[in-house]
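Blackboard transcription, Thursday session:
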Amino acid sequence: MHEQNILALADDLRARRYSSVELTRHYLERIARLNPDLNAFITVAAEPALAAAGRADAALAAGTAGPLTGIPIAHKDIFCTQGLRTSCGSRMLDNFIAPYDATVVERLAAAGAVVLGKTNMDEFAMGSSNETSWYGPVKNPWDHTRVPGGSSGGSAAAVAARLCAAATGTDTGGSIRQPAALCGITGIKPTYGRCSRWGMIAFASSLDQAGPMARSAADAALLLQAMAGFDPRDSTSIDTPVPDYTAGLDQDLAGLRIGLPKEYFGDGLDARTAASIDGAIREYERLGARVSEISLPNSPLSVPVYYVVAPAECSSNLARFDGVRYGHRCQAPTDLEDLYQRSRAEGFGPEVQRRIMIGTYVLSAGYYDAYYLKAQKIRHLIAEDFKRAFTQVDVIMGPSSPTTAFPIGAKRDDPVAMYLSDIYTIATNLAGLPGMSIPVAPVDGLPVGLQIIGNYFEEGRLLNVAHRLQQETHWHCAVPTGCA
Amino acid sequence: MQWETVIGLEIHTQLATQSKIFSGAPTRFGAEPNTQACAIDLGLPGVLPVLNAEAVRLAVRFGKAIAAEVAERSVFARKNYFYPDLPKGYQISQYEFPIVGEGRVEIVLDDGTVKEIGVTRAHLEEDAGKSLHEDFHGLTGIDLNRAGTPLLEIVSEPDMRSPQEAVAYARKVHQIVRWIGISDGNMQEGSFRVDANVSVRPLGTVTFGTRAEIKNINSFRFLERAIQFEVERQIDLLEAGGRVVQETRLYDPDRDETRTMRTKEEANDYRYFPDPDLLPVEVDAALIAAATADLPELPDAMRERFREDYGIGEYDANLLTASRDLAGYFETVAQTSAEPKLAANWISGELAAALNKAGLEITASPVTASQLAGMIQRITDGTISGKIAKQVFESMWNGGGDADTVIETQGLRQITDSGAIESLIDTIIAANPGQVEQYRAGKDKVFGFFVGQVMKQSQGKANPQQVNDLLKQKLAGG
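(Written on the board underneath:)
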């Protein structure tokens, strides 16, 4: 059962070849067997999952089922789930149970999806390797000595290891695309405002966006269909119709204009990763696409800009975790200052603390103009680069990550090296554009991700472009050893 | 040395919306702690603010009422600081781009002159919660019912030069916000709170002295006293060779003094930045038109109209336009009685005193506008004298019905029958030959004695003018 993609599962469920309860039990058994080593899940919700599966079976019997009814998925532990712990990968929220569902959770539940549990992640989504999680690092299913990427590393590993049919992720600077690339799965970060942020614990509000992580573009299309859409509870959610993503998957790519930014293929890109990306581009040419080199001149500034904007917003977003109303509180505080200082020092890990400090600094009187304001100006220039590029090309392609999965611990003590692993993904968040990562030819048995960037609200085109490649190639079908 | 006081005020007025500025929780006052705070007000993880359009509408109304520019685009910013009753660790406010720009209001000073006070800006923001320090055995309780309540912070220019001017300005803003229906202005409930920036400088100098900010004053009386104290404190300090430090102070009404809350060095760096959870607020002409379509005649315009239409002075006109209800009451009395000046005198005199003594608002006055007008008509048509009118008023106040009823049942009708008055006078002259002698010998003062006697014997009902005339005739030996 776990070999099947979502469409096939849905067919089987509808044909009553097995029930959703059986399917859910099968996945729960896989989780019980494989997760202790992979550490992809923080919380497994067996009972609620089986109850939801029972309801799905009733809907299937009643003939009211949709394509996601009874499909077992997992949520990144950044999405609030009513009655089920939402830790955000942090000791701070180890005891937190939200009294509400995130909109994304609510919509997938309404579509009939069954939630197996909550996946591991970098603490408060701050990290590119899943090593900052309070619950310990996730292992890459392709090589257990390596990282799965981050911050949605648990979701990526769970999907790659077939511990769920698909999962949700969030992407602030590459947190869907980079782990998707490193784990060999398909992930899409939609346009900023496409999916509601209500109930999604904020890291950097102007950059955060939810998206699906799946085994194929076709599966991702089904999830995104349910997740996307306007939500009056999120003022930054955009009220524009959601197209039928599945219906658009098969469109011919003849004449598709692909732009390759020269800045994404320079120093710092691993040569064999580059070769793998080239292979995929050649496939697209074979499918009738026209390839040209473009320039995104301000893209080298995206990492420094990001590391001003994102920490600035996070320093404010994380101020609510003060030990007063919920979350971690230190033992026996002597006074208010002590309560704040110890609760936060104990509750947050070093990377979160580092970013809070950077953010506090760049927003401080006397530094605001030099850092925050300047970063916002450059952010605007970065968006302008893309705007210009999209007058010449339909999609932009390049690597999702400069390297394949690196060993656990390799960059832990070098934050700048770690930050550079998002060098190709960050600019799209700064511009608010949709971006996607799909698996291409592996290097030394490790997955490589091709990044596809589209214009605003062109998720449909990205899924179409990804799907056509996946019809022609089998890179996305590879399964890690031991997970087949 | 002669010193000049310079005062600017920041007024926080609670907007009269049903729900909070960024959540659907109700804003009702006085509920059990934490029963009017939803997930958004509590700052739970993952929640997001959504702006209440009514708060914007009310802010626009205020902007137009003070002839200010309403910004087409204003921006919410986060003011970051840690405090237990500030659930998110930041307050959503407006900083660089407020919704209301420069405006002005007029105040009337005691001598009747009109002074213009500049309003720098007014911006929307959310209120914090409340810390409760009693009943928790050394711990602090937090009530978040207030958290997220919509406020309009109205910032003045440093245009006031005395505590009295500051109070007049604060009263004026209080009058406007209630007048245009954007706030109940209830000061006991914290719906109208004032911060005063106070400094002094040698008279005639241009540069400002160092200021102290007195926070959270919730009555006009305290405002005056706090500023008065602060001005004296600063002058004493400067004259003794000291220096005023820039700081935040609190006024303690029990001791009638201000004291240091925090100094500039201890002040927070609020690290303002635009709130990425909220879009800029766009206000277009249609929104302004809709928000101001039912804006009533404003107090300044009404005050000037009262002066012109009713011929009353600046001071009275100002008093009578203190609230829309009072102004409406006055206009009814003035028009029904056709005696605006008398109406003004009675309302700002007898009626105001009675209301004040009973602690009643004009809307709860036991004497209705038409009753008062009816009484004034009886004065002008001579049915009663001004003196008897006070008696009639008192009866009406105590539920005796309208003026005519009171006059009839208590027999207060004025005696205008010359014959009746003459016979009274004759009796009195006959009974007081000594005084008659004195008067005729040139002691004019004795005249008053006779008037008094006549009025006394007529129980005040004799027409005073007739009494005068007839007495003069009779005493002259007629």
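Lecturer's comment: Chain B touches chain A through 29 residues (CB under 8 Å).
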